[in-house]
Amino acid sequence: LPSLLQYANNTNMFGERFTSQFKKPLDFWSYVRTEHTELSDLLLKVSPHAAGVERLWSRMKGVHTDARNLLKVDLVTGICVVKMQFQEERK
Question: Domain tally for the chain?
Answer without folding.
Answer: 1
